[in-house]
Amino acid sequence: MAQTLQQAARDVKSRHHASPHEKDDTHAMSEATDRLRQQLIRNFDDIEKTREERAPLYDTLCARLGRGTAATKLGISIDIVEPGKRGCPYHFHYAQEEAFVILEGAGSLRVAGEMLALKAGDTVFIPPGPAYPHQIVNTSDAPLKFLSISTKDSPEVVEYPDSGKYLAYTKGGAFNGLQRAENNLDYWDGEK
């Protein structure tokens, strides 16, 4: 162990006395390291968050961590839901699978018509489909902090059972539509 620490100290000292060529390599490595870090790493405590509030039920401070990263099939968000509030409407996905990791606080998972208690350390797995409509509700008197993780399957349809809405969208925003089932058109409407 002492030998290893001594070698590490010599390595650090030799870097301070590096030749100009070695310093250029170090600078190039630093740029490459910074670029990799920007593409691959996010810190949910440091990232800028946005407040999404719609009184009286919804209030969350959140950020999408995967934006601007190299990730193409996975999305992760951080949510901090205020006491007595919800982060998003009751819904389910037809394509995407989701998971939630409770980091701090306590609340409830509204799922399939039931309320399940949640606490820090719990991990929730939600497969796609109508069997598991879900919503996280902060039923405590302190903020509820969690990670939302999802696949980014596209195209996607999301159904909102409480309001009877459907959201359909494609990756990249080529199509994005939100409506209620009673607004559906006949297949042949407008065709010649």
Largest sheet: 6 strands, antiparallel
Number of domains: 2
Calculate the mean pLDDT score and round it: 88
Shape: globular
Terminal Cα span: 82 Å
Q: Given this structure, which CATH class of the largest domain is correct?
A: Mainly Beta
Helix count, DSSP H or I runs of 4 or more residues: 2
Number of strands: 13
| Uncertain parts | 1-6, 12-16
Percent helix: 10-25%
What structural category characterises the helix and strand content?
Answer: alpha+beta
Strand content: 35-45%
Q: What is the CATH homologous superfamily assignment of the largest domain?
A: Jelly Rolls
- Look up the CATH topology of the largest domain: Jelly Rolls
Summarize the structure.
The protein is an alpha+beta fold and 192 residues long. Helix content is 19%, strand content 38%.
Task: Describe the protein's topology.
Elements: H1 2-16, H2 20-40, E1 50-54, E2 58-64, E3 74-81, E4 92-93, E5 98-104, E6 106-111, E7 114-119, E8 123-126, E9 134-137, E10 144-151, E11 156-160, E12 165-169, E13 176-180
Antiparallel strand pairs: 1-2, 2-3, 3-10, 4-11, 5-8, 5-10, 6-7, 6-9, 11-12, 12-13
